[in-house]
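Hello Y.,

Per our agreement to keep a running log of every chain we model this quarter, I'm adding this entry. I've kept the format consistent with earlier entries: sequence first, then predicted structure.
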Amino acid sequence: MDKENLKKLKKKVFDANIKLAGSGLIISTFGNVSGIDREVQVMAIKPSGIPYSGMKVDDMVLVSLSGEKIEEESPNPSSDTDTHLELYRNFTGIGGVTHTHSGYATAFAQAKKAIPCLGTTHADYFYGPVPVSEVIEDRCIKDDYELETGKLIVRTFKNRDYRNMNACLVACHSPFTWGEGPDDSVESAIMLEYIAKLAYRSISLEGTVEDIKKTLLDKHYRRKHGKDAYYGQK
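Predicted structure for the entry above:
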């Protein structure tokens, strides 16, 4: 393995975790970011239970796609490691995963409700309602909980495109987001929380709010995403 590239991966993941810590989306040690080097099939992830304020780049834990630690002397990886790995194994176009317990998005997850797409702010980042999974079954909780959580997310996307919807609410739990790299997955988590807040406030004001019409959804999503996007600089 190229040690220099693995060092770079650790640095990217460390920086993304620090960005998450500064985003206001997490409390205590509730949250983690990972990234993957697809060439060597190695993931780097935040260590379990270590406060963000005391973390160092070298604390990031390298794990193979099959779940083995690459460096024996490294700390224990995040308890959510198996969930991240399952997403990487199935969503082969992603390069980073973020997990938070951010307030508004988690409220929707606990209510077992998808985040409706009510306006253009949502449509700029997520193509339609952000889905919520089914409630995890008891047998899955007793078996391999974190792995089964990943499988639950993958099943939620059986008929969805993970490239157009880079977030999932795990029912009774909280959100996972992903992106092309660790930093992108954190950005998705930040935007997810913002659109969850807007949806919550809109519903609180109006009671029942209709979803955005499809023509407006398509316009706002596609001007930022895909081959015909024209937002930003070339």
